[in-house]
Design goal:
Pfam families: p450
Largest sheet: 3 strands, mixed
Number of helices: 16
Protein name: Cytochrome P450
Family: Belongs to the cytochrome P450 family.
Shape: globular
Structural class: mainly alpha
Distance between the termini: 49 Å
């Protein structure tokens, strides 16, 4: 089957059909090359933690995988690595990306959220992605890394070009975005070395572990990954959560009545409409059997946390949004050694963003205009979310 066939428009219908018919399917992947797709919860969870499924593209059979064409200086990141390199870099990053640093961001996140809501006024109509869900995380992640204000809009344009280019975007636009990002990170690292600041990137430059340190390519790739993933995933989480609440007014009313539900609600939003239809691709280092299907070494394997999170064998009545549900074990942010490094920050940002929005606007409704999804199999998120809002009922 062609993976794109119906998946962008009706992903959960497609995943339901695939789960019901077989545990593993032979497909055409996002780049058009043959691949295998895993959709059932137990199989996906096991695959995410299976050391035989490598993230290193060097294990792919020649000519079978294309993917993003990133230069080495941006490609040496955690999404392309296995142990021991992955273990080493994650250990170094952990020395700078601490829970304390995430906790220190709570107040600035709320300040930024309030400023964005102030700009909307007391009532009106807006595209909530453009006015709130997108600028909030790009501001937070740029503050975290120490990116100057003047570059923040540029970075948003670059990531959109790579992940979800607008219809008619010329093929060379992606290459130009990569070149621009490479130049940006090269200069940013040079500036931080010359004048370190109180930011994560300065800490990553300085971090040591028994004499070990990050190489130049590792630093650049890590900065790219944190900025890229930290922005993209949180935009999706905030936008998808608000849309889910607007489509389920009884759940929105319950959350307004008891804001203490917010942390649990965020977990349900992650399960119900997570930020990606597919996890990062993997390549077996030896023949592996998943769900009774043997996949040859070197072939491309895609696993779908979104499909797994709607598996009725794990989550009863999975297509129903239920903010009181037990979401233990959902896979929206991964599983195993590749579990999302920025998960605590993504959760905190989403919780703070929703709290500020619901407190500010007792009336929040779907607005005039079209809700548009990103045309991307990797980023499950919205391009537009029109809403109507008011500070009084």
């Amino acid at each position: 089957m062609d993976l794109a066939d119906g998946l962008l428009d009706h992903p959960y219908d497609v995943y339901r059909r695939l789960r019901d018919s077989a545990p593993v399917h032979r497909i055409a992947g996002p780049d058009g090359t043959p691949a295998w797709l895993v959709t059932r919860y137990e199989d996906v969870r096991a695959a995410l933690a299976d050391p035989r499924l490598s993230l290193d593209k060097r294990h792919a059979t020649a000519g079978t995988y294309k993917g993003f064409a990133l230069p080495p200086a941006l490609d040496a990141n955690l999404l392309n690595m296995d142990p021991p390199d992955h273990t080493r870099i994650r250990r170094l990053v952990g020395r700078a990306f601490t829970p304390r640093r995430t906790e220190q961001l709570h107040a600035p996140v709320r300040r930024t959220a309030d400023q964005l809501l102030d700009a909307l006024g007391e009532n009106g109509d807006t595209d909530l992605i453009a006015s709130y869900a997108a600028p909030l995380p790009i501001t937070v992640i740029c503050d975290l890394l120490g990116v100057p204000d003047r570059h923040r809009r540029d970075f948003r344009v670059w990531t959109d070009t790579l992940v979800a280019p607008a219809p008619g975007t010329p093929p060379e636009a992606g290459r130009h975005a990569v070149v621009a990002m490479l130049g940006f990170f090269t200069q940013l690292l040079a500036d931080k070395r010359e004048e370190p600041g109180d930011d994560l990137l300065s800490d990553l430059i300085a971090v040591r572990d028994e004499g070990d340190r990050l190489s130049e390519d590792e630093l650049m790739s890590l900065a790219f990954l944190i900025l890229f993933a930290g922005y993209e995933n949180t935009v999706q989480l905030i936008g998808n959560a608000v849309l889910a609440l607007l489509q389920h007014p009884e759940q929105l009313a319950a959350l307004r009545k008891d804001p203490g539900q917010l942390p649990a609600a965020v977990e349900e939003f992650l399960r119900y409409e997570g930020p990606a239809l597919l996890a990062i691709r993997r390549f077996p280092v030896e023949d592996v059997t998943i769900g009774g299907v043997t996949i040859p070494a070197g072939e491309t394997v895609w696993v779908s946390p979104s499909a797994a999170n709607r598996d009725p064998d794990r989550f009863p009545d999975p297509d129903r949004l239920d903010l009181g549900r037990d979401t233990t074990g959902h896979l929206a942010l991964g599983h195993g050694i590749h579990y999302c490094l920025g998960a605590p920050l993504a959760r905190a940002e989403t919780e703070i963003a929703l709290a500020a929005l619901l407190e500010r606007f007792p009336r929040l409704e779907s607005g005039e205009g079209e809700v548009r999804w990103r045309p991307s199999l990797r980023a499950r998120g919205l391009l537009t979310l029109p809403v109507s809002y008011a500070t009084s009922l």
